[in-house]
């Protein structure tokens, strides 16, 4: 999971070592939480929409994953800065530290993509809200992966088991949805009885000035007899991609 082996904590505890250890624990727990709940986001958001409506509480609920991801990014940045300070205490140059990070082609691609995206945004006459939405969708996930590749993961096995368990649960629910549960069951939770496939935003889609819930039975193309399973996701394609990631 990592692209390099970060500096190991010395036997003799220091303030920096304790700080690094504390940051690692926070990041490990936050990542575990993200992997466990993220596959359920569209399902939770759809139910919350029915209960809360377009309230502040609902809007805060639908942005939890971005807030957590940004928080984890901040923690990982602090981890890398702490590691840099430890290297500098050993009279290692910045160039030596960058060599230690072992940046590769993938890292360079993400960095270049981020720079180009920011440069493009600065040349466009768009509002900050529009830029933030684009950043959330097109840039934040890549930056998150970039930092994840350059920190140490002591709980990698636990994270992998969490992904497998959540994957099994969502797969089982998807099978039930496609083969046993009637569309009305999901509609009682806030899903729509429309049969078209939509593109959800936080579990919902915007159509002009109105908002439509996720379909409880998106039909297979050119068919009126088979519902495509979406499980707890925002659509069948997202569900399928997640299953491919889990299986892979």
Summarize the structure.
The protein is mainly alpha-helical and about 250 residues long. It is built from eleven helices and two strands.
Features:
248 residues, two-stranded antiparallel sheet, 11 helices, 2 strands, mainly alpha, 3% strand
Give the overall form: elongated
**Arithmetic mean pLDDT:** 80
Largest sheet: 2 strands, antiparallel
Total of DSSP H or I helical runs spanning 4+ residues:
11
Residue ranges: pLDDT <50 for 5 or more in a row?
Answer: 6-12, 198-211
Give the number of DSSP strands.
Answer: 2
Beta strand %: under 5%
Neighbour order of strands in the largest sheet = 1-2
What is the N-to-C order of secondary-structure elements (H for helix, E for strand)?
A: HHHHHHHHHHEEH
Summing up helix and strand content along with how strands pair, one would put the structural category as: mainly alpha
Question: How much helix, percentage-wise, in residues?
Answer: 55-70%
Specify Rg, calculated over alpha carbons.
21 Å
Q: End-to-end distance, in Å? A: 14 Å
């Amino acid at each position: 999971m990592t692209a390099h082996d970060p500096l190991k904590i010395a036997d003799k505890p220091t303030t920096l070592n304790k700080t690094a250890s504390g940051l690692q624990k926070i990041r490990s727990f936050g990542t575990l939480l993200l992997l466990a709940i993220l596959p359920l986001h569209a399902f939770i958001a759809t139910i919350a929409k029915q209960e809360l409506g377009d309230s502040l509480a609902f809007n805060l609920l639908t942005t939890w994953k971005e807030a957590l991801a940004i928080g984890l990014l901040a923690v990982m940045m602090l981890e890398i800065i702490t590691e840099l300070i430890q290297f500098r205490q050993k009279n290692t140059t910045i160039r030596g530290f960058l060599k230690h990070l072992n940046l590769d082609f993938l890292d360079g691609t993400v960095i270049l993509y981020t720079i180009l995206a920011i440069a493009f945004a600065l040349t466009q006459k768009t509002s900050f809200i529009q830029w933030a939405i684009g950043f959330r969708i097109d840039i934040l996930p890549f930056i998150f992966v970039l930092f994840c590749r350059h920190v140490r993961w002591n709980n990698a096995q636990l994270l992998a088991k969490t992904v497998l368990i959540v994957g099994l649960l969502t797969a089982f629910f998807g099978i039930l949805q496609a083969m046993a549960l009637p569309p009305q069951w999901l509609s009682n939770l806030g899903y729509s009885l429309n049969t078209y496939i939509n593109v959800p935003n936080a579990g919902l889609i915007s159509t002009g000035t109105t908002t439509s819930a996720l379909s409880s039975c998106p039909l297979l193309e050119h068919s009126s007899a088979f519902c495509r399973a979406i499980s707890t996701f925002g659509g069948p394609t997202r569900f399928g991609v997640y299953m491919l990631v889990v299986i892979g």
